[in-house]
Amino acid sequence: MAEKLLCASSDISDTTARICEVEGVEIGVIRHKGTIVAYRNVCPHQGGPVCEGLKMPRVCVEFDEQRRPLRQNFDTAEMHFVCPWHGWEFKIETGEAVGDSKIRLSRYKVVERDENVYVEI
Amino acid sequence: MTLTPNSPNYSSDTDPAIKEFNTTKLLKNARKQAEDRNYKDFFICDVDSHHYETEALPEILQYMDDPVLRHLGMSAGNVGRAGLIPQAIGSQDMAGRVTRYAGRNKEVVPEKPHRDITLTRRWMDAMGVDMACLFPTPMLLLATHPQPEVEVAMARAYNRWLCERILEEDKRIVSMVYLPMNEPHEAEKMIDEFAERKGVVGFLSTGYLKRPVHDNVNMRIYAKLEEHGMPLGFHAAYHWADSSLAQLNKFISVHALGFSFCNIIHMTNWVLNGMPERFPKLKTMWIESGLAWIPFLMQRLDNEYMMRTSDAPLLKKKPSDYMREMFYSSQPIELVDNKEALEVTFKMINAESQLLYSSDYPHWDMDLPSTIYDIPFLGEKAKRDILGGNAQKLFNLDPVMSDWKLEARKAG
Ligand code: FES
């Protein structure tokens, strides 16, 4: 596996994925919970640019003691990439689809060295 | 769990996914699919796509005969729908997650051709679609308007605008134009006015109707369509206020059931009242309910029909035999972990000749041509027929290939 330069460390934010092209493949890269994660920018559903959509937290439901819903809320501990084509959501941390954990974004190994970020491809 | 005390706006206008929105960019991966799969080698027709006609409402209203209704549409402080078109409750865009809804208004287009033509061509070219059958969006619920005269006036104005401003201008765009089924005598006039217009390939009944499709007042509509050799489309819609759906508390529920249910109701009436026997030359296409409802309904109706043939005396064969002769649009095709069920479905509906690809673009549950092209049990001919050949036959189309495909062919 070859290591390819993706971008400078300073180019990567923790709010919006940066889209880099390496050998004709688009890779979305973002800083998440202190580490850098990189996924192929192709959604396993119909191929949408999954890293270019909104970044949103998981939606959860809060119950009362009788299991009656009190309200919905956002759980910011679990952030998702939302594919802009149809809204499939993927956990940024693992790349798993929220609706079915067997389906995953394809992930690249990332190395940060000397202020630069590299992927193994 | 880390909960947010005050909800931030996760889809603000400044989000890079929304600002500087451009259809070609959003769909760049679709274009890659089109190139990788060599769509340049064959014709693709999308039989169900949409635009947002209310964005052109001031133009459309210029084609309205009734000056009082025209004024109503143009007033309301600024130009608004002002009661002309029912508004649906429900977040189609999933609270901004499907970014093309919020982005659409920001898309920059040249002054000419018409904005709707540019936007339509952009997604067509990205997906590899050569010709598209274009339908309105909010007007899909127009049949539920409590004032039938408003439905008729809007429908006529829209059809005129569509023919003159869009269909006349671009031969890659066609339409089955709006048929106000709630006012049958007006629907008949509509057929006379529009059947021969350029780009009109059929007529469309939308959503939940005030009378059942087999009502006697509709017979002249069907006879007229038969005379003109024009297919009739039933475009499903959900109608949350419908009593059978009113207990559903989520958009996902009402959308998943409502669309299929709409076509299930019309189809059941259509078949069991012997409409295919009464109008054997009238071709029908059932639009936007996915495919899973068809085998369900075929099995249910056949099972009961064999016990109760006396309830449906006009039928000369089983309900499923009639249904197998009708046409179906593909979207939203069910594709999650259902390969075997899908293969059975394709067999049961004679998909190779009766199924027509549709995208429903730009709506949230749109399907790319690859949803058909990548189906493993279909041969190349079946794929090409479903993606374009069947539509070409049904609509008697003169296929117009997109420029990029012609250029790609030349370049080899
Ligand atoms: S392509 Fe990503 S959600 Fe459909």
Automatic annotation (TrEMBL), chain A:
Q: Which residues form the Rieske domain?
A: 4-119
Domain of life (superkingdom) = Bacteria
> What Pfam family is a match for this entry?
Rieske
**Keyword Oxidoreductase assigned:** yes
Give cofactor(s), names only.
[2Fe-2S] cluster
Sorted keywords for this record are:
2Fe-2S, Dioxygenase, Iron, Iron-sulfur, Metal-binding, Oxidoreductase
What does the record give under GO molecular function?
2 iron, 2 sulfur cluster binding; dioxygenase activity; metal ion binding
Entry's family note: Belongs to the bacterial ring-hydroxylating dioxygenase ferredoxin component family.
Please give the name of this protein: Ferredoxin subunit of nitrite reductase or a ring-hydroxylating dioxygenase
Organism source for this protein? Lutimaribacter pacificus
From TrEMBL, chain B:
Q: Which GO terms describe its molecular function?
A: carboxy-lyase activity; hydrolase activity
The domain of life is Bacteria
Which example biological process does GO assign this protein? secondary metabolic process
List the GO terms this entry assigns under cellular component, sorted alphabetically: cytoplasm
Residues forming the Amidohydrolase-related domain are 124-397
List the Pfam families hit by this protein, alphabetically.
Amidohydro_2 (PF04909)
**Which UniProt keywords are listed?**
Lyase
- PANTHER family registered for this protein in UniProt: 2-AMINO-3-CARBOXYLMUCONATE-6-SEMIALDEHYDE DECARBOXYLASE, ISO-OROTATE DECARBOXYLASE (EUROFUNG)
| Name of the protein described by the UniProt record | Amidohydrolase-related domain-containing protein
